[in-house]
Batch of 2 targets.
Target 1
Amino acid sequence: MLASPVSPPSTFDAEAVRASVPALHQSVNGRPLVYLDNGATTQKPRPVIDRIVRYYERENANVHRGVHRLSQDATDAMEAARERVGAFVGVDAREVVFTRGTTEAVNLVASTWGRENVRSGDELVVTMDAHHANFVPWQMLAEAVGARLRVVPVREDGSLDRDAYAAALSSKTRLVALGHVSNALGTVHPVADLVAMAHDAGALALVDGAQALAHVPVDVRAIGADFYVASAHKAYGPMGIGALFARADLLEAMPPYQFGGDMIDEVTVERTTFAAPPSKFEAGTPHVEGIVGMAAALDWLDGLGRDAVFAHEHDVLAYATARLDALGGIRLVGTAPGKVSVLSFLVDGAHPYDVGALLDQQGVAVRTGNHCAQPLMTHLGVPGTVRATFAVYNTRADADVLVAAVAKAQAMLVG
Ligand code: PLP
């Protein structure tokens, strides 16, 4: 038995939480599933599933254009969800644009605000640990308009090189694109400080909160972000829905992203005028069941108590990290103080993919590879990592299964 240098388990009732998440209760390869791929997507609790079923059983109709009762109910449900989702991160409903997720939200900003405001000779600042979704759209924009993309390196532990960030900012900077929490390493960046530095340089700031929403407090106003983007499915909600949270004055000034129904004011043969935001950015039939499911997921998380959730996750991550490290022959990748959710590592002498495959045989679901962060992997000089990502329903017992499975894989692959 390995000694654990970390504190005893918290009193948080993770077993009760697990009981309400059906997908966790199944076997994989003849073993009870231990789901540690929450960075890719979380499993859904019963109240979220029930909310989506109720929508289809009782409320389904197209929104915004019907006088009939069901259409009004669906519209009310969608707009109530917009209020709820906005309130979760501290913004008004009119600052919430629903998108397919983080990826679409970044692309929306790059191709509307970006195309209007970034010119040849301007600079965009991104970070080396960015997910491709918050890297490639800026690289493409820079290429298209002749702007320069400046990439700020991270240190060995995964924290941002603050001096390099300060040095990258100048009067030429139009926008900085930051990650709130790194999906590959779990680093929590000091986004409020970094945004303030961007503003001091006269730039706007977009913060990618895909990995933050479920794991750290998010207050978009306190962070000061001009744009904040997130996906529901990484925070216990449905796939295919997420949001762009943006300052109302920016949304007002930005041109539409797509054209069609629901986003217009008036259409004549000669010309078209557009609806006010957020509708201006939501062309076509929206993903209503996703929207109400997203609100239900955030309600569920708040119902558990966000502080208690984060403390529980911290306990499990610290416990798992200490136990894994104690195996020996393990390289932890990303050790920044205050990191959350993510345990990225390499087994000396083994390829991450082989480790992942052997863990799967033991019922343990982890992710292997570059985690859509290839510039970071190249920067750190690793081929990729094995990544276990923890969520509210994971326990120390899950960590024990992970560590035992890694020890077995190590014995098989390294001898
Ligand atoms: N940003 C980060 C930090 C992520 O982890 C992810 C998904 O893994 C994304 C963006 C893209 O999110 P989505 O695929 O939901 O659009």
Target 2
Amino acid sequence: MTLSAPIIRTIEWKEETVVVLDQRALPHEEVYLTCADYQAIADAIRLLAVRGAPAIGVAAAMGMALGAMGISVQHMPQFLGRFHKIGDILIATRPTAVNLQWAVDRMRAVARHEQHLPLAALVQRLKAESCTILEEDLRCSTRIGACGVPLLAPEDVVLTHCNAGALATAGGGTALAILYQAKAQGLPFQVYACETRPVLQGARLTAWELQRAGIPVTVITDNMAGWLMQQGRITKVLVGADRIAANGDVANKIGTYPLAVLAHHHRLPFYVAAPCSTIDITTPTGGGIPIEERDPHEVTHIDGTLITPPQVAVCNPAFDVTPAAYVTAIITDQGIIEPPLARGIHAVMEAVR
Ligand code: MRU
């Protein structure tokens, strides 16, 4: 299988530091942050320098490795205790995207299983595991892309929300990986990108990525999707996910749920693309998914300018939950899951266990 997505390296090791593409500066500037310790990674995740569920999973794994490098104790039990606490700090940075918890748990499991190693060797083993997680994420993008392409048809007009592209992963994308592979295969299609208030991941990041890849993209404000569907100008909706519950309910960027309801009303397919690391079978339904509430400043200000009356009350949930009933299919790295989603999710997760 060839990787036809335009890889954008969002995060990588440079010797003993982790270098992150700072997505807050895009699309105007390509700025890189050098993280020398786990606190810098925690800040980069919390402040959205690195964002998107798979990307923050990779960042958390690297943060764990940086944390391990900074622990100066002589004995393994103390090391494991401190390593565990670093995981708690990283998990607390963003509660909704389960990839973060998944990556931390995986790093903790490596530390537990390899605790017979000398400390210095264990630290190197943890760094190597974070590289494996990054490589796996790139392969997931390729597989999601390949699985999803057959769902597209010539002249499709695909609506997407937020950014589920290369920037949201180690470098290949989820929802947008499908579009990249479709383009590589010569399929003619175009994309509408919702701007995605309040942080504007669609207008800033998805538009930047797609334009760079030569895919025709039109930015709309979030309140325009219904009208476009009513006019017959959208043929499919394709989004990513931050956490998928065992029953197929999907948490994704705030504003995804209304798009799913609109797609249902207009009888348009509503596809979700995500790696299996985004599926959380320990959470039975979407009601159990924690929804991150972010700083009101994101709503009251645009580019540093106050746009509301000062002191006005603000509500700023970063994600919403789309009920499984509105999801046409979930495109994973292990294949396409069709309704009944709960059964398909169970089968796929059994296979990857
Ligand atoms: O707050 P963000 O920018 O991290 O939110 C990202 C999203 O909601 C994406 O759609 C999701 O993580 C899927 S990314 C492949």
